[in-house]
Design a protein that fits this description.
This protein is mostly beta strands and 104 residues long. The chain has one domain. 0% of the residues lie in helices and 42% in strands. It is built from no helices and eight strands.
């Protein structure tokens, strides 16, 4: 059908805060996505911030997009034409994190 794009490859994964104050990229190497949905993991105890390498979750210096969650559902952020190695997360609680699904 005209206007439809068939994805080349499905991308899925997750990333969790391992140490408070240590930001993490969604991918360790270049991984360009046509579109990706980033979900806050349900049950996170605090807000996860998503942004560039400069993202911060420290109280008073927060930057990036805040993704909140409750016990059932988390916020979703959709990005287009993005390198997942350039998308970073930061959080205030160990094991809080995000999952993502997208396509190349």
């Amino acid at each position: 059908m005209a206007g439809w794009v068939v994805p080349k490859k499905l991308l899925t994964g997750s990333q969790r805060i391992q140490e408070v104050g240590r930001r993490l990229p969604l991918s360790e190497s270049k991984l360009v996505a046509v579109q990706v949905d980033i979900h806050a993991i349900p049950g996170n105890t605090s807000v996860i911030y998503v942004g560039s390498i400069a993202v911060r979750a420290t109280a008073g210096t927060e930057s990036g997009w805040p993704l909140k969650s409750d016990s059932n559902r988390g916020d979703v952020l959709t990005l287009e034409d993005v390198d997942l190695a350039e998308v970073w997360i930061d959080g205030r609680t160990v094991n809080d994190g995000v999952t993502f699904a997208g396509w190349q």
